[in-house]
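Data availability (excerpt). The following record was deposited with the supplementary files.
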Amino acid sequence: MRHAIDRYAGTIGVALFLLIWELAARLVWRDPAVLPSPIQAIGQAWTVLTLPELLGHVGVSLGRILAGFAIAATLGVGLGLACGWFRALGWIVRPLVEVLRPIPPLAWIPLAIVWFGLGEPSKIFVIVLGAFFPIFTNAYRGMTMIPPVLFRAARTMDVEGWRLLWRVAVPAAMPDVAVGLRVGFGLAFGILVAAELIAAERGMGHLIMEARQLGHLGVSVFGIVLIGVVSLLADRQLGIVIARTVGRWAKV
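Predicted structure:
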């Protein structure tokens, strides 16, 4: 019984939140123009949007997120591991990363437009900035926090040079790399609306902004919840992929 409760605790929590939201919207605010209930938001979205249109928005946003995340993951993991292994490179790169890391990705939008125009590259660039820094930071931390005893044990078996890096250091850093990838992927979704402010014509962020301008607050609320649901499902799929790839590598 307790195992079943633990298993479905998250679902129960979401259901309670939606119930409280529904009751508060109908009994306290009582004005859909201020706070539509979940049922009202879904109803308005059902009226305004067609299923192909909705799936199109989701597909476009996922394409941008996956492209930006793939670039950020490649750069963040590669550069983070390299800076952790080659300390001189880390002394050069880390101060620059620490200077740029606190800058909100939204602040880069004007430069993104100048550099890349109003097309897809500018949106992907902003998503890359949002995901890169946690991935780099965790990869660097994973490489620099490896217990020295692992290296000593490997050297007793004549493991040196690139073999030491590839067979010992990189697998030992993989748990931190996995954390960075999960955090970076979540931030990629978080920056989605800002990225799609750049003259986007489709996407979940564009859906939210367009609905607000047209006075369809329920559709905006639906779009916000939609981003959360899609992010949750995508994050779970990413977790499975990491467990089968990065996690397996860490056991080598």
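Summary of structural features: Residues 51-85 form the longest helix (35 residues).
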